[in-house]
Write a structure and sequence with these properties.
- The protein is built from 7 helices and no strands.
- Helix 2 runs antiparallel to helix 3.
- The longest helix is centred in the first third of the chain and has 30 residues.
- The chain starts with a helix and ends in an 8-residue tail after the last helix.
Amino acid sequence: MMKDKAVAAGTAHVRTYLGTPTDLAHEAVRDIAAGLKAVLADVFALYIKTKNFHWHMSGRHFRDYHLLLDEQGSQIFAMTDPLAERARRIGGNTLHSVGEIARLTRVADNDAEYVTPEDMLSELREDNLALTARLRAVHAVCDEGNDVATASLLENWIDETERRTWFLFEATRPAFGVNN
């Protein structure tokens, strides 16, 4: 019971000092901000993983893959500030630490000393595909909360993430015309 009072007091303090005026319902702000925070954790983790693979790329397609992952990493990193600022703009909060990213992300680390180029691209393809699903889930929360502005941002990021997935898929296709 004492812990519940402390949590309620902390929530009230945050609302007092970090709250932002909005016409969105309090529950909608809470749920949307939580969704954005989780997506932001995935985006940071995917950015680091993409750069890891960019730095450790090798092989006969090195230049193409190295440049592809650099471009994708830049695109992913460009999502971070707008995601965090959107959560704050509606009166929510966002990530505070690397530890919070680690607790919230669904993107698995890959600390292997060597990963084949095809495995790198395949892993990133699956991570981007999973990010698309998470973006869609938060979009549904925005729809429920009538937050069209956040939904609009998410729609653009869904499109960008689908594009990254497509490029990674095409780069890992085993043979011309084979689609699996």
